[in-house]
Amino acid sequence: MRFMMIVKGTKDSEAGIMPSQELLEAMLRYNEELAKAGVLLAADGLQASSNGIRISYPNPGEKPKVIDGPFTEAKEIIAGYTLIEVKSREEAIEWAMRMPDPHGNGEGEIELRQVMDAEDLTQNPETLAMEAALRIQMERPKKS
Predict the structure, then answer these.
(1) Which of 139, 101, 89 has its CA nearest to residue 19?
(2) What is the distance between the alpha carbons of residues 60 and 115, in angstroms, rounded to a whole number?
């Protein structure tokens, strides 16, 4: 089972205020722990929404709309994420509970969401085969 730990943004993260050295080191130790346990798939922080772009589809069948950031409501912004693969929902919660306060000042909030697998979306064998082939292609080493 894959789970994404979504780190919610704050006014500081949206203002581009970088985490303290102590917090960076705590997060690195946490990510090392995840990696040593063999559950870490990805972990990254994101730039402020002022550097972001939203693509919306306001009208079915029409061309999408491009909206440049910044976006309002820092609490609804994603400041970073950690993607893990674990055996159960309970294990995902245990790992999420061990994450240091992602903003270091009591404002941190993490949303934990299970990632859908192809089988959650369809039982069509052709579609599942296409998805499996795409995953194999994604895992191939990239040529420089």
Answers:
(1) 101
(2) 26
d(CA 118, CA 126): 11
For the chain, what's the residue count? Answer: 144
How far is the CA of 98 from the CAs of 22, 52, 102, 115, in angstroms? 16, 29, 11, 20
| 58 within 8 A of 67, measured Cβ to Cβ | no
Can you tell me the distance from the alpha carbon of 74 to that of 54, in angstroms, rounded to the nearest whole number? 15
Among candidates 78, 79, 53, 77, which has minimal Cα distance to 66?
53
Helix (H, G, I), strand (E, B) or coil at 67: strand
Pairing of strands 78-85, 2-8: antiparallel
- CA atoms of 48 and 107, how far apart (whole Å): 16
> Residue 21's CB: how many other CB atoms inside 10 A?
8
Structure confidence by residue, pLDDT tens digits, 30-81: 999 999 999 999 999 999 999 999 999 989 999 999 999 888 765 678 999 9
Positive or negative, the CA dihedral 143, 118, 78, 40 is: negative
